[in-house]
Amino acid sequence: MSTVIEASAIDFERQREVAAALRAFMPESSVMFEREDVQPYECDGLSAYRQIPMVVALAESEAQVQRILKVCHEKRVPVVARGAGTGLSGGALPLGNGVLLSLAKLMRILEIDTEARTARVQPGVRNLAISEAAAPYGLYYAPDPSSQIACTIGGNVAENSGGVHCLKYGLTVHNILKLRAVTIEGELLEIGSDGLDAAGYDVLAVMTGSEGMLAVITEVTVKLLPKPECAQVVMAAFDDVEKAGSAVANIIAAGIIPAGLEMMDQAATVAVEHFVHAGYPTDVAGILLCESDGTQEEVAEEVRRVEALMEHSGATLIRVSQTDSERLKFWAGRKAAFPAVGRISPDYYCMDGTIPRKRLAEVLRRIAELERKYGLRCANVFHAGDGNLHPLILYDANEPGELERTEAFGGEILELSIKVGGTITGEHGVGIEKVNHMCVQFRTAELELFHAVKRAFDEYGLLNPGKAVPTLHRCAEFGRKHVHVGQERFPDLPRF
Amino acid sequence: MSFVSFVVNAFYLNQKPVQHTVDQFAQVIRKARARKQPLRIRGGGTKDFYGGELTGDVLDTKTYSGIVEYEPTELVITARAGTPIAEIEAAMRERGQMLGFEPPHFGDSSTLGGCIAAGLSGPRRPHAGSARDLVLGVRMLDGKGSDLRFGGQVMKNVAGYDVSRLMVGSMGTLGMLLEVSMKALPIPASETTLCRENSPGEAIELMNDFAGKPLPITATCYVENRLYIRLSGAEPAVRAALGKLGGEEVRDGRAFWKQVRDHQLDFFRADQVLWRISLKSTSPPLPLPGTQLLEWNGALRWLDSDAEASVIRDAATRLGGHATLFRARNKSAGVFHPLGPALLKLHRRLKGTFDPDGILNRGRMYSEF
Predict the structure, then answer these.
(1) From CA B112, how far away is CA B96, in angstroms rounded?
(2) CB-CB: which of B160, B322, B353 is closest to A452?
(3) DSSP state string for A17-44
(4) Residue A75, pLDDT above cutoff 60
């Protein structure tokens, strides 16, 4: 078994010792432990979980990362790496007995090779900053998670982030070539190559989406793609989500891989329309947005076919963006879905299952039943092309018991995703949030193998312990408590 | 209206040799492990020439064959490892789909398992993704005979480490593949190939220049002073690009790309020493003796050369890549590019994790394991 160190109160003697060891080679201001200095790091985008870290270290170079990890390895101090902290699954939740290693200062774009169409960047570079820097050359970085203004490329690699265009252009794992990463022992690994593959095992794939459990990324070489000549979006409304689902299947069956294919149910559509006035009809069961990109000829042809397929599938209203500003207006609605829902509810909880598309109608019906069971509303946003469903459960954390009911509701959605042949997380990661449900998705043999893979990189289990892969002990506990879901989940985690 | 779905059970499609159960394969592995007897996992045997030494009793995967599930509207196909690639491609073609990485066939009996274990991809790779890019999930037996499932049948899945993709290209050293789920892609509505004469330097520059523009290019190859470019997509888009790029249209482009894919061009000969060099696409023509064929916008160079292995490997390393001794009688220089100490240590540990007694395809990848 790997060693899992649970969150705990801070041991001040240990804190001073670790901070002093780091300050031996780092500026004083880069090693923090006073409560007001470390409080900003107490949570990531999943703010329901909070923990004050023992020490925060702000690395300024790869060499510093190596020395920090060496010190932590020697002293057996657990380490949680963090980029911008926008993650939604608590992957960067700190440990009370650990170092929170921030890579946010490593924010330089080291090289843009316009001929080879690659960018070499430090892990703290923001996702969108890469595309902005590449734009003058007609190039961009394809994965575009909705947090792309703020989230960092290092975090994207750790979570294997997607975005609305990943059906056609792939996830992070499809768009990176090379990593430099430091093991907990302080050893530098060069993973991947400047070519399209590398010698040996595909360590690049294992590192991508490993949630900071295997090594700390210090440099990423990404692929850049030529910006499509043009893009157009078809918006279609349906009086029945099942028909919208059929439209998606019909588009795929016709051999079309749209650049983006998004669905919103009525609750999401109404919330968005009142917020940004994107021009969506609000009296429908759901809407689809289907984007085509490519050359003028490709787009004209594809849009014509998509329109016909939408009509054939029973769309009650179809609109095609005529200008780029209209296209952006249609997308503005989808992109504002989360904040729009945030406007109509004090809090919301975003789920992230992926399901086979053909089970969509059934899953949405079941979610509607769960809304009644738990007395909570839920708006559904769906990356329809790749089956990634984001139910947004609306709740009020100030109402006693609502967060717990919300988590139980979410837990049932996760299990439903597994039951229909899908997965508990499509792009947000397991983190701390879904770690118990890994026990439902995987069997003992697979979980044991995951632990063994971790040990191959990190013998003492010091990198981000307790996240992503549950211990078998934890699974046994979860199994026992499972019958009383919603009463006492994650009792070992502090709440503030 | 309901979703269009289509499930094929290979049993009804054609008759198969007697099939074995997962349990039977697991028992073979467990017994071999108890006796420390090495096993050599083998499908159609079309890639026996590829990789390091062949040791151990043959564990034949052809007796675990058939398409398990194919749902064109979900863009996913799942098949058993012993299924011939040709059978999978035929079933997909019927539904207007294909394996986007254009897997090489080094014989009619190439199987899915061998294709994924070797991890090789064909001409479409830089544009549609590699074998590894398109794998969504695997079911496998590790060196202890444990039946394991990773990934799944959905496009996006970040639960657990990506063991499915780790299996791709691992040459059977980490486990025996049982089932593989892959993303399916639509066959383009139209395709054409154009050809122009260029020097090697010009060709490299052109390929990279074109790759940086929004053009519907899906393959490039430079051989014998001629640059071949394949265009795919909607008919009007292909026509328009043809006008922009210039060059003459090749009459039977499809046959040409199949020859590139399967190493049937005159450039490839059974008795040659063939190197596969993967490097930065903009690297200048390699100053090495012998003849070269370029693919993947310049990122893949096939070199027919008797030069010293160390000279070739140094050149590849300098250009950010690696060199594989793809086809040769004498493999004493090692088939795969040597790993640095930190990576080698990690490889040993990973091998030990999946196959603690080192019985699976021993020495097929690196002599160290």
Answers:
(1) 19
(2) B353
(3) HHHHHHHTTS-GGGEE-SHHHHGGGS--
(4) yes
Q: Name the 3-class secondary structure at A484.
A: helix
What is the C-alpha R_g of chain A?
Answer: 23
What pLDDT is recorded for position B15?
56
Q: Which of B123, B120, B75 has its CA nearest to residue B96? A: B75
Residue B56 confidence (pLDDT) above 90? yes
pLDDT of residue A481: 62
Beta strand A99-102 with A55-58 is: parallel
Q: What is the CA radius of gyration of chain B?
A: 21
Q: Does B159 touch chain A (CB under 8 A)?
A: yes
Whether residue A494 is predicted with pLDDT greater than 80 in this model: the reply is no
Tokens at A186, concatenated:
């302080």
Q: Do B240 and A159 touch (CB under 8 A)?
A: no
Q: Which of B233, B192, B197, B208 is nearest to B126 (CA)?
A: B208
The ranges assigned to domains in chain B are 3-186, 190-327
pLDDT at A320: 97
| DSSP one-letter string for A131-197 | HHHHGGGTEE-----TTTTT-BHHHHHHHT---TTHHHH--GGGSEEEEEEE-TTS-EEEEE-SSSS
Torsion of CA B178, B179, B180, B186, to 10 degrees: 140
- Max Cα–Cα distance, chain A, nearest Å: 70
Fold adopted by B3-186: 3.30.465
pLDDT (tens digit per residue) in B331-349: 999 999 999 999 999 999 9
Interchain contact, B158 vs A249, CB within 8 Å: no
| Residue in A193, A201, A357 closest to B74 by CB | A357
- What's the rounded Cα separation, in Å, for the pair A321 and A396? 37
Alpha carbon A349 to its chain's center: 14
Complex ipTM:
0.95
Between B72, B157, B346, which is nearest A457 by CB?
B346
Pairing of strands A99-102, A79-82: parallel
